[in-house]
Specification:
The protein is of the alpha/beta class. The protein has helices at 39-49, 64-76, 123-128, 150-159, 178-181, 194-201, 206-215, 255-268, 273-287; strands spanning 3-7, 10-16, 31-37, 54-60, 83-85, 92-98, 104-109, 133-137, 163-167, 189-193, 221-224, 230-233, 238-241.
């Protein structure tokens, strides 16, 4: 393997268009996609589709949902020996309701993702197997990383020479970002979108938020700006990297995860930060052209 992704796994049911949900009436829509979801699975699938041998570390249930999710993983050649099925928990599931503006709302159950902790990451074994990067996906929806146990794992990953990256996802836990602070000094790249950056940092503009997060210890901060591309900031760079415009915007579900996959894949190929951000932008633009988080990687 070359890349390792640690994060949540779900079965996604994405419905479109759904502009409102009446309380006592039936609801009809035109399209539905049932496919893997969850930040961890999304990024891992993207990395595989981009040609990077990738292992996923995660948890899922012993149910029919897990069978469907695994069938997609097999199609891209994802290494799943570090994905454990947990008795007594369902596979995480999300129902996404995508409105006419391509914006999703989610109804979600975490399921087996609640049992995932950093203790399962054997950095020595992963490094010996050829891992070059470790990505933490969906930080705030992983209760098992809220206790401070992730920071020493990231420090060890860096000591073993792995590129360390972490992305967050919107969650009520974001109201108290304290568990994140100990992780930032051990990250090569911290990723978030503009709303997340402002909410976490308490600064009301994306660029100022990136600077504030760097002051918390992050070496490089990349703030995803949607159709405007991304803001890249580290000790030597502070610039916006524009994104190519999507042909059509169908659904923004998973766009940030596609960006992460494109970025990490590019860095593993030896590209610099600006070029890697361009590759991330291209992957994100591709993702929004299809309904569902990973549909673009399977031909849309």
């Amino acid at each position: 393997m070359k890349a390792v992704v640690f994060g949540n796994i779900t079965l996604d049911v994405i419905c479109s268009p759904v502009n409102e949900v009446p309380r006592y009436e039936s609801l009809s829509f035109d399209q539905v996609v049932v496919s893997p979801g969850g930040c961890g699975s999304n990024v891992a699938i993207g990395l595989c589709a981009l040609g990077q041998p990738t292992a996923l570390v995660g948890r899922m249930g012993m149910d029919d949902a897990s069978i469907l999710v695994r069938s997609y993983w097999q199609r891209v050649g994802l290494e799943t020996k570090y994905v454990q099925q947990v008795e007594g928990y369902p596979t995480g599931t999300s129902v996404g309701l995508v409105d006419q503006d391509a914006q999703p709302r989610f109804i979600h159950t975490s399921g087996a993702n609640k049992t995932l902790t950093p203790a399962v990451l054997d950095l020595d074994q992963l490094a010996d197997e050829g891992a070059k990067s470790l990505h933490i996906a969906g930080f705030f929806v992983l209760p098992g990383v809220m206790d401070g146990s992730l920071a020493p794992v990231l420090a060890k990953a860096q000591a073993r020479g792995l590129l360390t990256t972490l992305d967050v996802v919107r969650s009520p836990r974001m109201a108290d970002p304290t568990p994140l602070w100990s992780c930032l000094p051990h990250l090569d790249i911290f990723l978030c979108n503009e709303n997340e950056a402002m909410r976490i940092s308490g600064v009301d503009d994306p660029m100022g938020a990136a600077h504030a997060l760097r002051q918390r210890g992050a070496s490089t901060v990349i703030v995803k700006l949607g159709r405007e591309g991304c803001w890249l900031e580290n000790q030597g760079i502070a610039e916006r990297i524009p994104a190519p415009q999507a042909r059509v915007v169908v659904d923004t579900t998973g766009a940030g995860d596609a960006f992460a996959a494109g970025l990490i894949s590019s860095l593993l190929k030896g590209n610099d930060y600006q070029e890697a951000c361009q590759d991330g932008n291209r992957a994100g633009s591709r993702a929004v052209e299809c309904l569902g988080a990973v549909s673009a990687w399977f031909g849309g």
